[in-house]
Amino acid sequence: MEDKSNVICESLDPSTGLFISMALLRDVKNSKELKEKVMSGALKCAMMKPALIVEPFQVIVAANKAAVSYLKNSMVTKSLYTELLFNLSISKNITQSLVKFGIQEDDRNVLIATIHKENEPVIQDILSEISGRLVPLVELQEVCDMKLLCKSYKLNDAEKDNFVLLDAIVSRIATSDFVSY
């Protein structure tokens, strides 16, 4: 599970000085334990339901919003990672957002993300806690549940076209602070 080529690291907005690292895992056997560790703060990361993620860029946009809120001390939630999950959602209901986008005890696929300074990537430590297969992020397309995704983001038929799907989702994430969907 140490294949670093399956982990991506991208820069967030330069004003934050932060980066995001992401990895997709399949056939996860210890989701219940992982959820408990994330909720207790023992694992410093976001563990997301990849069925609701169409592309890594969707997570990067939410992470940017979370990082800016974190640095401005204007977070709506209690941690940087719950803020990321909250920002993935178009709902203003924190609990609903965390339940919908966070992992559940029986999830077999998990997308993890850490936000860090360039010289502090901690994702490898987190990967060692997961009993599952590290796979390339392109496999998001295989685990994404389009019906659930479209329902969660309230996408209309025109937006479901693959050429505008990511744009529609990212637009909703970016404007969720001041638009109700």
UniProtKB/TrEMBL annotation:
Keywords: Nucleus, tRNA processing
Pfam family of the protein (one): CGI-121
Domain of life: Eukaryota
Localization per record: Nucleus
Protein family per UniProt: Belongs to the CGI121/TPRKB family.
Coiled coil: none
Gene Ontology BP term (one): tRNA threonylcarbamoyladenosine modification
Main location: nucleus
Residues of the signal peptide: none
GO terms for cellular component: cytosol; EKC/KEOPS complex; nucleus
PANTHER family: CGI-121 FAMILY MEMBER, EKC_KEOPS COMPLEX SUBUNIT TPRKB
Name of the protein: EKC/KEOPS complex subunit Tprkb
